[in-house]
Amino acid sequence: MNFQMFKLDLEKAEEPEIKLPISTGSWKKQESYKENIYFCFTDYVKAFDCVDHKKLWKILKEMGIPDHLTCLLRNLYAGQEATVRTGHGTTVWFQIGEGVCQGCILSPCLFNLYAQYIMRNAGLEEAQAGIKIAGRNINNLRYADDTTLMAESEEELKSLLIKVKEESEKVGLKLNIQKTKIMASSPITSWEIDGETVETVSDFILGGSKITANGDCSPEIKRHLLLGRKVMTNLDSTLKSRDVTLPTKVCLVKVMVFPVVMYG
After folding, report:
1. pTM, whole model, 2 decimals?
2. Are residues 119 and 4 in the same domain?
């Protein structure tokens, strides 16, 4: 591999095949068919801290998790206590009945099941609202506590949001309306939910990538390329060193440069 040539190619590149989030691909697809697409980027108030333990065990059972695994989890969470240290000492110890364990590898999985239960009860799996991709109807994308709702009309999107909000509150999760944003490929007015305004935006960072209302990926691609160039610059002395073997240099580029350019 000629690293100097690779660096030059990276500097000259304009639009490589960068894998942007599925939502960006959806946007480009809708744009090519001249169809409208509406996004709602939801945000929960302290999502992981508000998972109710009693409701969680019930949800796990309804989601088909074997009883012996649920029992193990209950034992893991049983008897948890905490105290708060202040400038005047510590508070009385109190029981913890909400929240998944911080740093535990099971916590994201437990929250995913919690969120899936909300979506199922909100009827999103059977809902006609959404966008069609490869013959499938997709109306929500989720990563941890970040949920993106999608539809082809403003009315459908608002209906999805209200359903998710109602079902979330039933299990102890509350939407942060101030941080929840809506974006559309056509003009859209701000909404009011329970007296609070849902802001309309022209761009949004989703999964580390910027999505724009006009579906233009150029700014995001340029950002990826710039990040790649910075990494190449930092590796310059290593890649030019005669003490480093060619296979090692190839591995460094594949591990440190390619992921940055492709995924940011």
Report:
1. 0.69
2. no
